[in-house]
Amino acid sequence: MNLINLQKENLEKFGEYTSLAYEDKEYTNLQIHTLGNQLANGLKNLGLTEGDKVIVCVPNCPEVLVSYSGISKAGMIIIPVLFLLQTEEIRYILNKSAAKAIITSWELIDKIKAAASGASSLKHIIVIGKEIEGKVSFEKLIAESGKDFAVQDVADDDLAVILYTSGTTGKPKGVMLSHDNLMSNVRASTKSLTTVTKYTVSLVVLPLAHAYGLTVLLGGFALGGKGVIMRWFDTEKVLETIQKYRVEIMAGVPTMYIYMLNHRGVEKYDLSSMRIWLSAAAPLPIETYRAFEARFPGKIYEGYGLTEAAPAVSLHYDTRPIKPGSVGIPVDNIEVKIYDDENKTLPVGEIGEICIKGPIVMKGYYEMPEETADTIIDGWLHTGDMGRLDEDGYLYVVE
Question: How many C-beta neighbours within 10 Å does residue 272 have?
Answer without folding.
Answer: 11
